[in-house]
Please model this.
Amino acid sequence: MALHQHQHQHQRQRQHRQPGMRFAGWRNTSATAPGTAADELTTPLTVARVAAATRLLTAFTFLWAFGDKTFGWGYATPAGKGWIDGGSPTKGFLSHVSAGPLEATFHSWAGAAWADWTFMLGLLGIGIALASGVALRVAAAAGTTMMALMWAAEWPPARHLSDGSLSMSTNPLVDYHVLYAAVLVTLAAIGAGHTWGLGNLWQSLPLVRGKRWLV
Model:
């Protein structure tokens, strides 16, 4: 009897030492009262679907930019001025950089063939990876690098441009490039390619199995 009481007390002490924090969005909702709005919004399936929808919307953003710059759909790129028509996807943007310590560097890159190919393949590759749900960590790394360069090109910390006019920056640190990068990293971190994507199939491939950076 004494031995049984001692074991029972030891188990209670171990349970007391275990951390009690749990993520509400991933708890076992079967143990909670059904039918409440909070339960519906915090199920793992709902979270996975929201992440998948965010992934697909972000993929569309990158793929649309690639298509418009390639074929000149008449939005950001005028008709007849697309990459396929001989236009440069980087010349217009980089040649108009007018703030920041890399202004001269970006001007020298504007219209260069290597810059055009790197930028366009980046848009296409990131878009395809997000749409299919594969290689999200590679896409997050490439996308974050791209967003960092574009952030540096616009240089939000500047109050004035090189010609002295106001920069009209809405936030000196966090702009939409930072938000895009955060979304990409988040999608890769939570494995958003498994729902409505090919993430499970991708991870089962011999080339990918055991290589976490390719997930």
Remarks:
- The chain is about 55% helix and 0% strand.
- Residues 44-71 form the longest helix (28 residues).
- Residues 1-11, 13-33 have pLDDT under 50 and may be disordered.
